[in-house]
Amino acid sequence: MKISDYAVKNSQFTLVIFLMVIVLGITTMLNMPRSEDPELNAPIFPVVVVYPGTSPKDMEELVVKPMEKELYGLDDIKRIKTSIRDGLAVLAVEYRFRVNVDDKYQELVREVNSLRGSLPQDIYLIDVQKIDPSNVNILQMSLVSENASRDKLRNAAEDLQDELEKIPALKNVEIQGLPDPVIRVDAQLDKLSQLHLPVTLLRTALQSEIANIPGGSINEGSKSFNIKTNGDYRNIEEIKNTVVSSINGNNIFLRDVANVYFDYSPETHITRFNGHRAVFVTAALKKGENISSIQEQYLPVVNKFKATLPSNIDLQLQFDQADNVNHRLGTLGMDFLIAIGLVLITLLPLGLRASLVVMISIPLSLGIGIILINLLGYNLNQLSIVGLVVALGLLVDDSIVVVENIERWMREGHSRLNATIKATNQIGKAVLGCTATLIIAFMPLAFMPEASGEFIRSLPVSVISTILGSLIVALTIVPFLSSRILKPHANEHGNIFLRGLQKLIHGSYAVLLDKALKRPWLTIVIAILVFAGSLALIPVIGSSLFPSSEKPQFMIDITAPLQSNIYYTDTITKRVEKELAKVPEVQYYSSNVGKGNPRVYYNVNQQNERTDFAEIFVQLDPDTKPDRKVEIIERLRSQWTPFPGAQVEVKNFEQGQPMISPVEVRVLGDNLDTLRHLAATVEEMLKKTEGAIYVNNPIRNLKSDIRVNINKDKAQQLGVPTINIGRTVRMAVAGVPVGTFTDPDKEGDDYSILLSVPRASYPDLKVFNNLYVNNNQGKAIPLAQLADIRFETSPLSINHFNKTRTVTVNAFVKKGYLNSAVIDNVIAQMDQLKLPPGYSYTMGGEVEGRNESFGGFGSIILFTVFMFIAVLVLQFKTFKSTLIVLSVIPLGIVGAVLALLVTG
Asked: Any alpha helices (H) in 718-812, and if so which ranges?
């Protein structure tokens, strides 16, 4: 081929290119972005609505339905999943893949803003969130102390936060597990009751006192000056001296009707490290950064900071994602050395010089591949590294074929230069065709649609880029090196290794081939039977969209009885910790009570605050093998199923797009009672399904609520707006932030001013007896005259799927069972279940992911098949020869099936 001739005849130019590839490959490898996982930039935007004190049913009617109606009409909407709880609704708006994420986010923000006027005016928050795929924490550290004060821990955590924020590549450095400092204003309801003053009056007084209103501007001479008024409190005494009201000419101060003091907000997230009291500090990596090089920046900072801590506070680095990335790159390096060694052994029959030429082609091909990967916008992550490992087994093929043919021509007596040119020209088209078929074989993975395709795409891109690099090297660098390094053989039959190999081939393989050719029909029948047998093994092997993670880490989710308070949930968590500490492979565990662990895995988000929930992040010894990790998980599952007083789920990390669980049955309909009955039926069915574990029915139990039942007729007669009643109740029970106090004595620390009632009053229903509500004339009316208090049951949550009420019952799969087999069993049972008219079911989880990933995949496969055939026809010129080559594919499937079966 001309390119080979040019490379050989222009040796100095080729040498420059050779050196350029080496230098660029090394610099790209060292500097290109690295992360543990590929980025999933899915077009999903959570719309969070906070409306405190609103029941799920009221939230559904007043907020969710109007919003869903408008948002569902937007272009390119794929689906909207809505979760509704007390005072909270989250609408997960998902667009079709391949849309412009930034444009759709702006469109959604505009639409939500236009809806605000039609929604209740006292909604606390409407927030359209944009999920940043890079917001995965690469660091999770613990400041551990059993006796340090909260102030000391907070100061240490904030100092560490400041140090980490100075590193440009880090972002979202956050403190978790420490309540915020506040100034509490605890209203004394009995005194307010005696004075017939509503608790809302305190709010009005405080907000009026700290209001900063721009005063406009005035002109003085040739200059204009802005006027600012400053109503900020300077100390806590000024807050206490706020005038609340005046009775008979006497001022009523805040200190007369409330207790004002420094405190911390109620605990909603309790954190521990290895069973000890701790505060977590986390940090994420900015997009496009190299995590390995950044580790060299933050580790010295962490170690230096640790040395400055007092003796009663310890700093533990419990999660460092860079270690995982470096381990994977180390694995690639080991595979690279193995490939070099295997090439050396394999090419001994051609001689050490030929082996050297092929060995040099390996790093060159990898270098070109890495350069192309970087230019295409991909980084080094677990899948691109896997792609490079896969490519290691393919990239030497072209070079081996070229070198072997050059050696053959030299053994026939041709000069080194002549043999190099003629041998490369002879097989150049064959090498090109072989490489083209390999590239085409990986094209379906490169064009896989939806989130699964986005997740896996860096793997085929890595393989294709590296194979393309191997083609370039085989047709340019390899001929150039061969023309300079190889030497003629003294024996035309080659060295001792080649002669021994030929003798082995003629004595075994040639005999078997001769017998096969003499009995062609028998050979064909045997091949067909072997192929059919391998197909029969596919159901035994089973399938799953993505495998489980092999990282030595897993999660433990703890669910206490419904509506358990955070301290009861904490006692259960401590029991789990006690058992977990007995596992010798456990290096550390991070406990989170009332909230999920900070996000440390790309497809597992942090769970929102729930008093009856806890999560433990477990790190095993880094040398723990994947099989051993699975054994530990299964043993803990057996040990904690059932767990007294709670449900404890031990979960391995899964690869691929985010999903709740592999098995999800989604039942759709209108009536909540009917849905609850159907969900219970599905739950029992899943519990009896072999291989299913951790069956979860989110509406299994009803929760008890306290309903403030307003007498609207009476309220109207007395001139009391309904909204005033709701605000008064919320202020007394939940507390209301009324402003911010900046303490000049503590370096300008900000404290939220929280108006509420003393904490001891929270569980006492008598709190409602001492509440007064203002009417339109300012008169205080007892709450007892306007409403009665009663208990009622209500669903814990209401969920929607594309505007329809739904309930999703989900389950995980035990070790030793195939996801596909369990799912097929569930589908068969659901098909036999008679649903009432107007009710239906769909499968979520892995089924939904698989359907989306492979939906429309048929056209890609057809295109690939025809491209494959076209290349072979172009190469072999006849359909007969092409069919002969294609007949090898079924036998390749035999090998793949057997390999999967043997390796499990």
From this structure: 722-733
